[in-house]
Amino acid sequence: MTRKRALTGYRPTGKLHLGHWFGNLQNMLTMQNEYDAFYFIADWHALTSDWADTTRVREFTEEMVLDWCAAGLDPARCTIYRQSDVPEVAELALYFSMVTPMSWLERVPSYKEQREQVTDKDLGNLGFFMYPLLQAADITIVLADVVPVGEDQLPHLELTREIVRRFNNAYGEYLVEPAALIAKQGARVPGTDGRKMSKSYGNSIFISDSPDEITAKVRGMITDPARKLKTDPGDPDICPLHQIHKLVSPDPADIAEWDRCCRSAECGCVAHKQKMATDLVEYLAEFRARREELAARPGFAWEVLEAGAAKARPVTSEVVETCRRLVRIDNNG
Ligand code: TRP
């Protein structure tokens, strides 16, 4: 029985944080056992917004492979590769650009939003405009059935299906319409300031942070904003510290006790921060040890990517050759 194919990608724009860990990454870990899973680093996508400063793309690519593998993605069970090592993606994107009306890209919500909100970068380039088109090619180049992503990616998945339908209509039913798969647990992880954890907010705890960095960040966390004094009763349900503690504590009874003593103002936030930092450091201990071990192996990440590209390319070559034939950009009659 052949397994269904899953694919997802991350832009190499920095280290992974707890939001990634409890969101998409847990899904990716499960899926490598149940699917023919393709996980790739979208380095061309990083260029679309950061073309003017590409100094850290390589470094971030390497960090991402280390984070992934230390977290448990296993290059023997899934295919880990770098987008730019599979140039077939670019050729498919070119064919897609022929069948895709510009108006479809203009109405993508993330495009409109970012053009309005991002002021420190020039996003008037063609590459950024076709970001979702390139994403459609990433997904389709392996004929992926499912794409594990966050909810913010749903419009991109819908656009991918529309492009696939248009291509199939024009040239013959071949490409697969992918389905999005949103994380089941879908834990929304708050950042240190209480907003959603996001690299661009500067409120992230990275999974590769050292114990000292973790402790310092946790000490600076927002708690229940209405709880000004230790003698005020607190509300753990709106406390970001408590939300993260619930995810990382080894002991539900301990969580229940912090919940109780916060509500009754018997314990203070300083003590809770110390305990949560200790639990978080411990929770990530195994990951941290594995990551250090992998980082100490010279060339590890690049070897993983090279082997992954070698596994991906038979698939992507076949798909792109079939597309060429369907578009009649070949010489076979
Ligand atoms: N757009 C995705 C993000 O920002 C990254 C991405 C690029 C992707 N190509 C993809 C995700 C293909 C899933 C499938 O997170």
Describe this structure in words.
- With 333 residues, this protein is mainly alpha-helical.
- It is 55% helix and 7% strand.
- The mean pLDDT is 95.
- Tryptophan is lined by residues 7-11, 42, 45, 135, 138-139, 147, 149, 153.
What is the structure about, briefly put?
The chain contains 15 helices and 5 strands.
- Name of the CATH class of the largest domain: Alpha Beta
> How would you spell out the order of helices and strands?
EHEHHEHHHHHEHEHHHHHH
Strand content: 5-15%
- The name of the CATH topology of the largest domain is Rossmann fold
Bound molecule types: tryptophan
Biggest sheet strand order reads: 1-2-3
How many structural domains can be distinguished in the coordinates?
2
Structural class assignment: mainly alpha
For the largest beta-sheet, the strand count, sense and barrel status come to: 3 strands, parallel
What is the annotated CATH architecture of the largest domain?
Answer: 3-Layer(aba) Sandwich
Query: What is the total tally of β strands?
Result: 5
Number of contiguous helices: 15
- Radius of gyration, whole Å: 22 Å
Mean pLDDT over the residues:
95
Task: Give the distance, in angstroms, between the N- and C-terminal Cα atoms.
Answer: 35 Å
Shape: elongated
Give the uncertain stretches in residue-range form: none
CATH superfamily annotation of the largest domain: HUPs
Q: How much helix, percentage-wise, in residues?
A: 40-55%
